[in-house]
Amino acid sequence: MSKLDAKIPEGPLSDKWTKYKASMKLVSPNNRKKLDIIVVGTGIAGAPAAASLAEMGYNVKVFCFQDSARRAHSVAAQGGINASRNNKNDGDSVYRLFYDMIKGGDYRAREANVYRVAEVSSDIIDQLTAQGVPFAREYGGTLANRTFGGVQVSRTFYAQGQTGQQVLLGAYSALKRQVAKGKIQMLSRQQMLELVLVDGKAKGIVTRNLVSGDIESHAAHAVVLASGGYGTIYYLSTLAVNSNGSAAWQAYKKGAFFGNPSFVQIHPTSIPVLNDYQAKLTLMSESLRNDGRIWVPKSKDDKRLPNEIPDEERDYYLERRYPAFGNLVPRDVAARAAKERCDNGFGVGKTGLAVYLDFRDAVKKQGVKAIQGKYGNLFDLYQKITGDSPYETPMMIYPAGHYTMGGLWVDYNLMTTIPGLFAIGEANFSDHGANRLGASSLMQGAGDGYFILPYTISNYLADEITTPLPSTDIPEFQEAVENAKMRLQKFLDIKGTKSITSFHKRLGKIMWDYVGMSRNEEGLKKAIELIDQLQKEFWVDVRVPGKLDEINQELEKASRVADFFELAKLMAIDALNRKESCGAHFREESQTEGGEAQRIDKDYSYVSAWEYKGNDKDPVLHKETLTFDNIEVKVRSYK
Amino acid sequence: MKIKLNIWKQSNAKSKGKFERFELDGVDEEMSFLEMLDALNEKLIGENKEPVAFEHDCREGICGSCGLYINGHPHGTGSEIGTCQLHMREFKDGDTITVEPWRAQSFPVLKDLIVDRNAFDKIMAAGGFVSVDAGQAPDANANLVNKNKADKAFDAASCIGCGACVAACKNSSAMLFVAAKASQLSLLPQGKVEAKRRALNMVAKMDELGFGSCTNTGACEIECPKGISIEYIGQLNREYLSASFSEAE
After folding, report:
1. Helices of type H across A44-93
2. B245 class by beta-carbon count within 10 Å (0-12 exposed, 13-18 middle, 19+ buried)
3. In A, which residues are within 8 Å of B121 by CB distance?
4. Which residues belong to CATH 3.90.700.10 in chain A?
């Protein structure tokens, strides 16, 4: 029997959150100062959560692995943040935003959660603006908007191509204000190694101080994971190279279910792999597809420079396959189409794993100046990396791992299946279904942190006010510390011959080839076998230099990669279980005659929530059935 | 390409450091500088030697983690780039490259090329915020903001907190950082209310943390990966002066 209860409040969709808020338990200001909360991660979910909880009066301990909270990878979000304010008088509403997200997620997200984030989206813009975020303005002084992919309204707020950094710095400044007030204890350069449960409830974490190497215990009345996504499992991704899935994975191993682990967004327009030493892939914003045309040569092995290839010998394959949407098809469709051309030998560049994104026609028609006004900073970024000017020669792009829609399963309260353990932002699975729309990750993270978690965590903590903070001397903490130390020592003792990075690269290749943009039964089974073999090799032949009690960056990587082997297997198992295609999850066995993704609603209209049963045992699948009472379930078509 | 490297090695904050020489063959001109260091570290691990510790994360010039002093310049000699955006095509076969950590009293070395920039966080905690709790915000369009001012605030706000300005300054002054942070907020109506208090508190904290004085040489502006103008220092000075003469509210 399934243990899943999403705890969705009764009543009409538009009243659920309002009514629920009015009925939730509260913690009085006097009692809040007796309660401690741990927040892991300081991105656009963690920083707002920490600041808001401290403002309410709770004692908050915040952890990040970077040297400063300001560096969390939300900083790299480019395009913007959505909010249904209808500032353009173009028919936007909470319902429209909700509708776009459910449809964009290919009907695999939970209605009540998505509606709620759409409801709070407007408050987020108010809050960030009040904190000093310099959003773009019109000449009249009001906030400016732009349009993003997959929608018909203009609801994206932005700060040039740097929205992520500006929004994060707003939240970071709020966090710093509480540090100065003594309500937040900020612990940077800390890596979470273990989650600690006391009487079945999350009561603390064990971390490694990345400077001294000390293994530390930290106790609290509740733990919030805001640790982001796991896209670096592909080794090469658009994520920061140190982003990782370990905090969520450790929680999974302590009993938190993992939701839809195989749902990963592959972003179609990233700068391709240039050399074997490449450590990451840099994103080129989706907005470029407004004016850029994507093509490859019509004949294989065409070695001419792109500008020497005449139009009639070019294959504008998106325009050919999707005449209605052309170059502006959604991310998953564009990514798969690029892969198809390259797999069939039409790719360009040194490796053959790239396609052209060409601005020749746009420059000719609109002039250099107009194009510079729209995309200048992106063209500069491209030129800094590749040395080529997109004004003169087409960009080369290729899809890259980007955002994980999957994550820890949470109920309507954003609580995992472990009481007292909450997951917010990209770390949870909840709002994006099988595909995320542009500019909605900042919205969801900030919404969770500022306006949802503070309510739901109080509802939980109201029953904890008489529970004293556990001592870190109790056996539960001691045992977690011992486990953490033993594991780290084990890495150092293997003394094999191969570096962590070499294993991570090989794992990434397996994941990219078999659990990436396109999946099939045979490949997924093969992936599981290959991951198993590689994992075994890792545990006997990895070489981790240095010691425990010092800055040891290889040791930091070791536990991340060790966790990735386990998570990789779960991703493959999940992808194998879901025999339909939906959103970013493309099962080759389930496609239309035209090669498009085919959902199988009667069998797979559910969230997969996986329960850990031990290292050598298969995980158990629990299903949260999805019901759509407020939206008609349709087929997505872009032809 | 074959490259010779002269890299600062230091076990921890307390130990004495020294330059060590390394050689690396097979350097591709398409590699970023950090990818070249990755390759060096893979080679060192293969030889059972300790890799070089350096800080890095986003590798696209926005997180501000990477900060290396390369051949006498923060982030190398390129214009408006972070170390992660510097590429090996800027160097020639046989070049010797000297790589050091930021050198500033307020940024102590933790290991090899990693320094502690926590002082910046402390300056921010002293006043780099608008005092508004979640739930207190007025409608975002209630305060109209002049577009030019909003753009100017954005230019100041593009600071990535890397510390190159301090590293570039002969006095290790943090004025450009503090000026950018304070100006971003004081240029906007929502931040103007506590502008005086902010200027006084952030400058006091900067002095307390041992950053040097600003003598307007402008080295910080030249080396800033985001091209932040020293005009903001003028703005902060004006604010600070006016705040010093009036009672801070």
Report:
1. 46-56
2. exposed
3. 68-70, 176, 179, 186, 188
4. 266-401
Helical ranges in A105-218 per DSSP H: 111-130, 163-180
Q: How far is A367 from chain B (nearest CA, A)?
A: 24
| CATH, domain range A13-23+35-263+405-461 | 3.50.50.60
Q: Which of A176, A209, A276 to mutate to test the interface with B (most CBs of B within 10 A)?
A: A176
Q: What is the CATH number of domain A266-401?
A: 3.90.700.10
Look at the domain B3-110 and name its fold: Ubiquitin-like (UB roll) (3.10.20)
10 Å Cβ neighbour count for A468?
9
Which residues does A522 contact at the CB level (< 8 Å), separation at least 6? none
pLDDT in tens, A406-449: 999 999 999 999 999 999 999 999 999 999 988 999 999 999 99
Number of Cβ within a 10 Å radius of residue B86: 25
Confidence bin at B2 (pLDDT 50/70/90): very high
B32 with A385: Cβ contact below 8 A: yes
**Which of B78, B123, B120, B97 is CA-nearest to residue B40?**
B97
Do the bridges between strand A36-40 and strand A59-63 make them parallel or antiparallel, or are there none, so unpaired? parallel
Nearest by CB to A75, from B63, B111, B157: name it: B63
Q: Which residue of B has its CA nearest to A48?
A: B134
The domain ranges of chain B are 3-110, 118-245
Q: Which residue has the tokens 């009672």?
A: B247
B185 contacts A166? CB cut-off 8 A: no
Find the Cα–Cα–Cα–Cα dihedral A427, A428, A429, A435, rounded to 10°: -40
Given this model, what pLDDT does residue A1 score? 42
Is there a contact between B184 and A177 if contact means CB atoms under 8 Å apart? no
- Residue ranges in chain A modelled with pLDDT below 70: 1-2, 150, 638
**CATH superfamily, with its number, for domain B118-245:** Alpha-helical ferredoxin (1.10.1060.10)
Averaged pLDDT score across all residues of chain A: 95
B132–A131 CB contact, under 8 Å: yes
Residue ranges matching CATH 1.20.58.100 in chain A: 484-601
- Chain A partners within 8 Å of B28 (Cβ): 275, 277
**pLDDT tens digit string along B98-142?**
999 999 999 999 999 999 999 999 999 999 999 999 999 999 999
Give Cα B13 distance to the centre of its chain.
20
**pLDDT tens-digit readout, A122-140:** 999 999 999 999 999 999 9
- Write down the pLDDT at residue A210: 98
Q: Which candidate from B12, B50, B137 shows the least CB-CB separation from A129?
A: B137
Task: Tell me the pairing of strands A421-423 and A222-225.
Answer: parallel
**DSSP string over A113-126:** HHHHHHHHHHHHHH
- Beta carbons of B65 and A71 less than 8 Å apart: yes
Point out the catalytic residue in the list A331, A360, A519, A599. Answer: A331
- Residue B248 above 60 pLDDT? no
| Percent over 70 (pLDDT), chain B | 99
ipTM value for the complex: 0.97
CATH (residue range A484-601): 1.20.58.100
Residue in chain A closest to B59 (alpha carbons) equals A240
Strand order of the β-sheet with B69-70 is B18-24, B3-9, B96-100, B69-70, B73-74
Minimum-distance CB partner of A554 among B51, B89, B160: B51
Q: In angstroms, how far apart are the furthest CA atoms of chain B?
A: 64
For the segment B219-243, what is each residue's pLDDT rounded down to a tens digit?
999 999 999 999 999 999 999 999 9
Å between A460 CA and nearest CA of chain B: 20
A71 is known as an active-site residue: no
